[in-house]
Amino acid sequence: MEAVEEQDRLLSVNSNATSLIVGNLHETVTEGELQERFQIYGQVASCHVVRDKMSGHSFRYAYVNFIKAWHAALAMQVLDGCSMKGQPLRVVLQPRGPRINAIEGNLFVNHLEPSITSEELHCIFSTSGPLISARVATLEDGTSKGYGYVRFVSREDAQMAIQFFHETVLNGKKISVTQFVPRSERQSVAYIPDLDGEKRNVLTAFSLSAMVNLFKFLKYM
């Protein structure tokens, strides 16, 4: 129900939007494959899979631009949640204004408790705003590596998530939430967000479900 309400809100705000952000892509998905999948719902002007400029590695999301706004809206309504190469797609309307680049809106979440899944990570961080993707890094056998990546549609929502979730305790482990920095641009100085002390004390040790409910409460304080 919440996902449907969020889609309706985006449609009302972006009634003339012709561009979609397609997240949670399998890393091998190409522009041609996206074009083939989305053109069923209307004429596609362009498709662009966002990649690392140095390595060419996919950032696992793309922009799909339609000629007509109602074709974009139809594609979003039908394809959001549908599987492509075994991955459930996350399809949202591109907000008005300039695009966020490949780094803005992308967070690195470290020190995760091993039992936390990608679905749970998505559940937690989506309380801060619409997500393109959320993924826990795993070994070949599916075992968690203890860290993950969360990509927001909005850079503002990403910054809010850092403020609320950095150094909180999730399932018994204190997590670190920071802006993702590509390996080529990493520096030795870590980002320490400025969070109101009173709220930091409140957000210290909660279960998965309790943290989600608490965030929804604090967001509107």
Automatic annotation (TrEMBL):
Residue ranges of domain RRM in the record: 18-96, 105-182
Gene3D superfamilies registered for this protein in UniProt: 3.30.70.330
Record bears the keyword RNA-binding: yes
Annotated GO MF terms: mRNA binding
PROSITE patterns: RRM
Any Pfam family hit: RRM_1
Alphabetical keyword list: Repeat, RNA-binding
Coiled-coil segments: none
Superkingdom to which the source organism belongs: Eukaryota
InterPro entries named in the record: Euk_RNA-bind_prot, Hud_Sxl_RNA, Nucleotide-bd_a/b_plait_sf, RBD_domain_sf, RRM_dom
PANTHER family per the UniProt record, alphabetical: OS02G0815200 PROTEIN, RRM DOMAIN-CONTAINING PROTEIN
Name of the protein this chain belongs to: RRM domain-containing protein
Organism of provenance: Taxus chinensis
